[in-house]
Amino acid sequence: MNSASSTMGSTIDPSEAAHFGRMAADWWNPAGSSAMLHKLNPPRLRYIRSRIDAHWGSDPASYAPLADKTALDVGCGAGLLCEPLARLGATVTGIDPAPENVEAAAVHAARSGLAIGYRAAGIEEVTGRYDLVTSLEVIEHVAEPAAFVDGLAGAVADGGLLILSTPNRTPLSRLALITLAEGTRRIPHGTHDWEKFLTPDELRALVEDAGLTVMDVQGLAFSPARGFELSESTALDYFMTAVRG
Questions:
Q1: Per-residue DSSP letters for 159-226?
Q2: C-beta separation of 165 from 240 below 8 A
Q3: S-S: 95 plus which of 24, 88, 121, 234, CB 3.0-4.6 Å?
Q4: Domains of the chain listed by start with CATH number
């Protein structure tokens, strides 16, 4: 979930950075304030792995399909996605606007024996280009979505992938994520602003305006029996994959 000024302007919303920074110490607790992110991670990783294999033709049975590749996770929080990407073989960099988050991320990675480069920064401060750029459940928290997507696109290497996820702006997402999840404190109150959610068509337009080609859109749904799962329906939340070149 979870991004400072530069020539492109700041995309960081300071109040959002502070909100997520307050969660830093509890980020890796699967029963804590980031419990929903822990539940989201398995379908996230299934989707990312499927896109990696489809794009680079890697063996689905391989333990390291990202070997010799670089990855950047933008809005990395305390590293819930960075660590699996590192275990898939990538050289990983994680950035987040909250210093508390990157400190917690670095400590956890060291304890896990993983070499991941973390820094407190926004996308405006990224100068390198990466084979894989991810930013999951982040764009709905930034100040300037178009500038943010431009920055993400600029960080994607030729032939590289950009993978995004975000809630859709629908009655279902308002009910599920705000009325129910925030109302019952399953996620911290004030985490979401429904008006900042983007529809798939809106996000596709931003990605294409930034010079990338959208290759795939897939929904993320919630089942009371099975939890979060990949779905044909984008009514609640969705992934989008785009490619440069």
A1: EEEEEEEEE--SHHHIIIIIIIIITTTSS-TTS--GGG---HHHHHHHHHHTT-EEEEEEEEEEETTT
A2: yes
A3: 121
A4: 14-243 (3.40.50.150)
169-220 tens-digit pLDDT: 999 999 988 887 777 767 777 788 899 999 999 999 999 999 999 999 999 9
**Helix axes 200-209 and 145-154, enclosed angle (nearest 10):** 50
For residue 26, give the DSSP letter.
G
pLDDT for 130: 98
Nearest residue to 4 via CA among 98, 122, 103, 94 = 122
**Contact indicator for 136, 22 with CB cutoff of 8 Å:** no
CA 89, CA 159: separation in Å to the nearest integer? Answer: 18
Which residues make Cβ contacts (< 8 Å) with residue 150, sequence separation at least 6? 8, 210
Residue 61: both structure tokens together: 């049975």
Kindly state the tokens that stand for 171.
């009655």
Examine the pLDDT at 93 and tell me if it is beyond 80.
yes
* 73's tokens: 């996770």
Where b means 16+ CB within 10 Å and e means fewer, 17-40 reads bebbbebbeebbeeeebbebbeeb
- Output the six-digit token pair for 245: 């070149």
Check residue 149 and give its pLDDT.
98
Strands 156-167 and 237-243: antiparallel
Are 125 and 149 in contact by the 8 Å Cβ rule? The answer is no
Torsion of CA 220, 147, 51, 74, to 10 degrees: -80
Question: Is-contact 102 2, C-beta < 8 A?
Answer: no
